[in-house]
User: Fold this.
Amino acid sequence: MDPENVSADYLNNIWKFFASLQLTIVVLLSLAITSIIGTLIPQNEDPGVYFQAFGPFLYRLFDVLDIFDMYHSWWFQMLILLLTANVLVCSIDRLSLTWKIIFPGNPRFTPARFRSRKNRHEFKAPVVPDRLSGTYRAFLSKRFHHTDITPTDTGVALFAEKWRWARLGVYVVHLSVILLLMGGLVGSMFGFDGFVNIPEGESVDTVRLRNSSETKKLDFAIRCDDFDLSFYNTGQPKEFRSSLTIVENGKSVLQKDIIVNDPLRYRGINIFQASYGEMAPPQSRQRIPVPETITLSLTSTESGMTYQETLVSGQTITIPEGGGTFTWTSFSRAAEFRGQPIGPAIIGKLTPRNGDPTEIVLPLQFPSFDRMRRGEFALAVIDRQPDTPLQPDPVEKRYYTGLQVTRDPGVWIVYTGFILMIAGCFVTFFMSHQQVYVELSESRSGSRVMVTGIAHRNKVSMANRVEAIARQLEDVRG
Amino acid sequence: MNSSYLLSFITFIYGFAAFLYIAAWIFRKEGPGKLATWVSLVGVIGNGAGLMLRWYESYRLGIGHAPLANLYESLVFFAFVMVIIYLVVERRYRSRTIGAFAMPIAFLTMAYASMAPHISSRIQPLIPALKSNWLIAHVMACFVGYGAFAIAFGVSFMYLMKKGRETDQPSSMVYIQPVVLFLAVALLNRILMQYPWGLSALIALGACVLVYAAMFLYQRMAPATRERLLDRLPQTKVLDELNYQLIMFGFLFLSAGIITGAVWANSAWGRYWGWDPKETWSLITWFVYATLLHARMMRGWHGRRIAYLSILGFMAVLFTYFGVNLLPGLHSYGAMGQ
Ligand code: HEM
Assistant:
């Protein structure tokens, strides 16, 4: 064989490999299975945490495989790339075959294609084909976009079709997958994702980038004029609101209050309400000494009884009424709950009667905090030794607002992909290219009618539709 | 009347309907079947009314929001969608036997919502991140999808039962089936009831014994009796087609659900995708059903394998919905904001 043929063969095989549905199944299932790993092992945490959790050997193994940031690892990106190549090659391959079917120039139909079909309905009509064909064509053209008529050896044949373009639906879906991946790529190459804390009254023009140590300077400054938060009377947060001003070249150019779900957008940069915090007086953290003993109150939700227990650090107590055990594991001077500072707190491990141990946080300043957990018991620290007073609340609390600042030029590509995916799926699943064929042949007492039809998918419902059409045609046979 | 009471009452109505469907199937009677349809219809209207009432009550409390904001409300909506989809299927396919497999799922969903100890039926105010119209679109789309997948799950089960008679199983399945059954039941107990692993395994063992005892009894039945049980199920061809139709419908809505979720995330946090466990699991579910849609186009992948994939897909749905809260790395208060 000459070398040209060999390489053509070779290319052909590669093309076939990428166009195969087997590859699709393998890649989709691989993506589904490997994606599970990243949900079992929390991603992007501090290396030290992983090292402690897994020990040196597993840590090194996982590190080499990028398990700690697996969705950005080379092998996961490879799978996605493989999927993209697969969709692309497969779609081109098929579209080149079906293009002629979808855009045939002037649609022609071949009676032979329909005559051999199994699901055919036949009946007799008392009128000759030429008289019947007019009625039938009118009937069909009400239901189908395109109708056609041709004389045959024995009479006439009518043809009707609609939604030829529905064959394109699946290519639209596949195109949308490619757009989503492209949009993601554009976003990660040309966009950024940063965050910044701005104390009330101050302004900044630089943000820290997420998952990296770099910063990014903006073309303008963001000033936080005011930050407000409100709570429901259940204690759950109701609204976080930052009044922001964009300052460009020393001039205020835009003012807007932002809340969660309603960001500020300026020059392609989006500013979201992400978190907030209190400005701590600098020395207050050091003041509170580590308590040596604490007294807990334990209130049973079921019986309403309240019990008291005094314990030292590290001690485990048994909760009354068979409620399990509680261990005082540590003390934090500045604990956080969901990213919100809640001041000094006791941290402990609660093991309910039946259930797994959970870590719970008992802030010294908020004795009713643990009620939010809705456990069988609500715990609170009611006394501690040594008992230095907590910092009295400052008269005027000063907050900082935590903003997420992002730029993602790929988002419009992704959104286009979203729309195409929904539209494409709808067309693919619920519309099909339907063709109906009616043949009228002359017989002694009038004509013989044969009705049949096909659709490129959902063949069962098409069979029902053809049957219904045949029955209606029988009713109008003259 | 308070919406929680109304909805607990609906649980019993669904239970009654499920009972009637099963009775109609086993005893081959038309009467209970017809009654079951009417009872289901009454149930689904009451279910819808319960949701509306809850919406109204939330406004009376001054924290008005659509009743789709927490686990309880989403479960109630899930059951609502499921029964509607089922009733449409019943009408289209003119088979009440499907009800014997579909209504129990709706009943269990409502019973779980009303009775599981860790699910609160209180109307809670919305935390800031949930205040978005995208949230409503997102939850609705997801649960319409899940509802279709749940019925497809029941239909797949019927398919396997019916097909089991027509052809012999490959011998490897005999060993794999009990293991899979055990693991699935244990995992379900763990994630749905939040029992510790030991207890979950014990219950799973019990369930396996029960299932196999039932199968043993079934084998011992006179062939004619067995025949009578199965000939009421629609033909395998019809079940396969129905499974596929439901999955296409579900896939469209699951896609819409993931997409509206992404748009919501983008408006709240400035990113449309962040690989957090919930998002990732919904994508895993989507991959499983995408695999199924493509597998159908390959030779040799009709029928049984599609039914297994459909069951696997529904397991992924359950894990997306309930299991994610158990994963490590989430705050122990994780379920609170849901
Ligand atoms: C995540 C990515 C993908 C999605 C969401 C997707 C979606 C779809 C959908 C919804 C259908 C219609 C299914 C049906 O008719 O029941 C379909 C059909 C199809 N897909 Fe994909 N697909 C993906 C990837 C791929 C890949 C990688 C290939 C490569 C071979 C592929 C090849 C096909 C083929 C050949 C069809 C049948 C087209 C026809 O009916 O003529 N798909 N796809």
Notes: Residues 329-338 of chain B have pLDDT under 50 and may be disordered. The pocket of protoporphyrin IX containing FE is lined by residues A 21, 24, 83, 86-87, 90, 94, 170, 173-174, 177, 425, 428; B 290, 293-294, 297 (CB under 6 Å). Chain B touches chain A through 56 residues (CB under 8 Å).
